[in-house]
Amino acid sequence: MRVLVVGAGVTGLTCAVVAAERGHQVDVLARDLPQETTSAIAAACWHPSLVHPADRMLEWSRRTYEVMAALPGSSGVRRRRSTELVADPASRPWWADAVPSLHTLAEVPEGFGAGWAFDGLVAHMPTYLDYLVRRLAENGGTLTRMALPALPRGADVVVNASGLGSRLLAADPTTVPIRGQVVRLAPVPGVDDVLLADGPSGLTYVVPRGEDVVVGGTSELDVWDLAPRDADTAAILARAGAVVPQLQGAPVLGVRVGLRPARPSVRVEREERDGASPVVHCYGHGGAGVTLSWGCAREVVDLAESAG
Among the CATH numbers 3.40.630.30, 3.40.50.300, 3.30.950.10, 3.40.50.720, which is that of 2-305? Predict the structure, then answer.
């Protein structure tokens, strides 16, 4: 079966790898190459954020955790102890069953109502995207830069993993950006664990990746501005320094902005088209593209292989 995958972010590449490793002929077409996508900017710690509905997210994120935890070190994926703090009292997060171990914190910092620690995963995205491209190529797949005015027709099935491009390619105006700005800091001795602190001032995250520490962030719905803002940088650094004091004064290596592809719910479904290739849609992952990638990809390829 020939499969055309539209989109070369983490979702498209993972779908392509799964399809190629099942023996299909796979070609990826994308306006932006992997290192130019929003995926390349992501802090990429495993965490189901900014996505719905929870029931499907749980299975997709569990499957992704299982696959990524078994990847070799050359993939850029590392295990990191992770802690999440939330403003309101709670006993467990809804996604707790997706990770092998999680325990509730007996005490949390002032200003937070609950917290938990778990064995997390972090992907250094520039390395991880290159790993996926290599894995695709090793299984006969190709990657081509191509700006498409519409979803292609010449294949047994088309996978639409175009993210925000689905506003046009899938005629879906419910797909909107969530603007996210992050700051890369130089490595800080003693800062080795992931921290997600969702407090009254918004979500602050600290993600050490070895060669840097990514701190964030912003979450602005339906904002298309890709220019970094000095005010956002200052606010991010202030919040991060408040929850992890060792970060105060750390050298700034860079500031990046990405547009997460959000939707009321993640769309993973098959669409039959008159006179054209069937399409399996896979987009709307918000801030959880990495976290859901392998789970969604398996379902996408199952749908691609099913009869219409």
Answer: 3.40.50.720
pTM: 0.96
Helix (H) or strand (E) holding 135: helix 125-138
For residue 83, give the nearest of 128, 50, 114 by alpha carbon.
114
> What would the pLDDT profile of 124-142 be if each residue is shown by its tens digit?
999 999 999 999 999 999 9
Q: Give how far Cα 308 sits from Cα of 126, 151, 233, 279, 302, Å.
A: 37, 18, 49, 10, 12
Instruction: Specify the DSSP class assigned to residue 3.
Output: E
Residue type, 115: G
At residue 190's C-alpha, the angle toward residues 185 and 72, to 5°, is 80
Exposed e or buried b per residue across 71-91, where buried means at least 16 C-beta atoms within 10 angstroms of its C-beta: beeebbbeebebbbbbeeeee
How far is the C-alpha of 257 from the C-alpha of 202, rounded, in Å? 17
Alpha helices (H) along 22-124: 54-69
Where in the chain are the domains?
A: 2-305
